[in-house]
Amino acid sequence: MTDPTFDPILEVRRPRAVRLFAPITPPKRGTALVLEPREGEPVVVDADGRVPDAWLGNYLRSWVVDLADHEVGFSEALPAEDPDLLFDAYVRGTCRVDSPAQVVRRRVRDAAATVRPALAGFLREIAAGYDIGDYADAEADLNAQLEYFTADPALHIGPCRVRLRIDPAVRGRAAHPRGRIRLGQMHRGALGRLLASGDPALAAQLLASVDAGRLPTMPRAAHAMGVLEPEPVGAAMRERLIAHLRRNSGNAGNH
Fold it and tell me: Which of 16, 33, 61, 239 has the highest Cβ tally under 10 A?
């Protein structure tokens, strides 16, 4: 199925230089008329407006621009906290022209393609803070943050929704701590579970194999260790966790 979009430019004409018997008229309701002069800025006329120099104005082109709300949508792959794992996102919302002059100046002919780069980048930054298994929380946050998104100077995005899904095979693999390590990640949720109920010796071994640069700050894990302030990050966090886990492993072996 084709993603919904629309062309905001309904009509383009080249007015005659002299229009004594056929002057340029205002547009119909729900549209705007944009007159492109030989010099200077475009002239925008709405349905109740007056066309300047309607009979003799020296205009290169006249453009009729759609002002109605239309549905737009697109699919986008959003990297999770581990960039090797992706959320499949489908974005759908309403869109309308905010600036007819900019639409004409930039020759916008596909609304969805115009708003997609900025909107996808906005969503990508938010999704990158979530574990692939936390797609429900990620989806809720994405939709909440969309209220603060400004799409484009020429176009306005109205009510908009994001739906996330992940491949079931990826979901199952990501839920297992060993699978996460093989994928080159250690997420906050996985680490918390290892500290709470995992094998300390195994957890220490897995942590030692993780690139310290990929370790996020992990306040819950630090709290579980009694490391409250200052909170270590990166390599410091990893080494302290490994030491803590190995101590626990040694204590367990003495009982």
Answer: 33
Q: Which segments of the chain are extended strands (E)? A: 9-13, 31-37, 43-45, 59-66, 70-79, 86-97, 155-165
Domain assignment present for residue 133? The answer is yes
How far apart are the two ends of the chain, measured CA to CA in Å? Answer: 63
162 and 185 within one domain:
no
- 74 and 32 within one domain: no
Give pLDDT tens digits for 26-48. 999 999 999 999 888 999 999 99
Which CATH number is 124's domain given?
3.30.479.30
Tell me the two tokens of residue 103.
């639409």
HSE, CB side, 13 Å, CA atoms: give it for residue 215: 24
Q: How many CB atoms lie within 10 A of CB 106?
A: 13
Q: CA 22 to CA 56: how far, in whole Å?
A: 10
Taking a C-beta distance cutoff of 8 angstroms, is the pair 58, 121 a contact?
no
The verdict on 207 and 240 lying in the same domain is yes
**CA distance to 47, 96, 201, per residue, from 35 (Å):** 14, 20, 74
Contact 1, 92 (CB under 8 A): no
What pLDDT digit, counting tens, does each position of 213-248 carry?
Answer: 444 444 444 444 444 444 444 555 556 666 666 666
Element (H, E) at 145: helix 135-145
223 and 142 together in one domain: no
Same domain assignment for residues 232 and 192: yes
| Chain mean position to CA 102 | 23
Supply the pLDDT for residue 246.
64
- Token code pair at residue 53: 């120099």
Give pTM, 2 decimals. Answer: 0.63
